[in-house]
Amino acid sequence: xxxxxxxxxxxxxxxxxxxxxxxxxxxxxxxxxxxxxxxxxxxxxxxxxxxxxxxxxxxxxxxxxxxxxxxxxxxxxxxxxxxxxxxxxxxxxxxxxxxxxxxxxxxxxxxxxxxxxxxxxxxxxxxxxxxxxxxxxxxxxxxxxxxxxxxxxxxxxxxxxxxxxxxxxxxxxxxxxxxxxxxxxxxxxxxxxxxxxxxxxxxxxxxxxxxxxxxxxxxxxxxxxxxxxxxxxxxxxxxxxxxxxxxxxxx
Length: 251
Ligand SMILES: [Zn+2]
Description:
Blueprint lengths: L2 H14 L2 E6 L2 H4 L24 H6 L1 H16 L5 H10 L4 E6 L5 H5 L4 E3 L2 E8 L5 E3 L21 E5 L10 H11 L2 E5 L6 H12 L3 E5 L5 H5 L2 E3 L3 H15 L1
Parallel strand pairs: 1-2, 1-7, 2-3, 7-8, 8-9
Antiparallel strand pairs: 4-5, 4-6
Helix pairs in contact: 1-10, 5-10, 7-8
The chain binds zinc ion.
The site of zinc ion has 8 residues, from loops.
């Protein structure tokens, strides 16, 4: 199957379907300049992400963890959604039954206009009270001499980023909602996920197993692309707009 045929087949599958699940990972945000914080370039003040994004790190030094997240939030705020995020937001309007499940915490999907979404790992745009669970928007920047740890408006408890840390369980209902969509979906579009984070890969493979048409958009070959009906191989910021044009041409 050449690239043009792959695009056509993917567009036809999306055109015919009424129930669609989209799964996205870090790859979709690469073209927006979102750093992955992995590998040797991913250090912050000498720490790896795995040493900061844990409940243990937060318990030991909440100010350090907050300063890291505030730095990340500022970086993310400078990034903008790319053509891939925009196509997924537009795609939502074509399906009576639609869910976007993302591993990303960068907030670019909602900024692109996606509404029917579940952020599996939380979001850097929100913080949560450790005591009462209240959710509030991410705090405004503070100066270097100010306390970086925000407090809850309601109970004055300590706030933490509303992000799923290493070693934490998925929040109740989150995975179930995505799994329900995977079981119902006629077509599943996977974008920019390595397949190494297991729940999203499992959702895609389970949907395929029970009959969904599986489209993978990824520059690399992965476990998901190996199982996919169509593998669109390349950057999603280019391929998804091409796919959208094909879809519009069908009607
Ligand atoms: Zn509270």
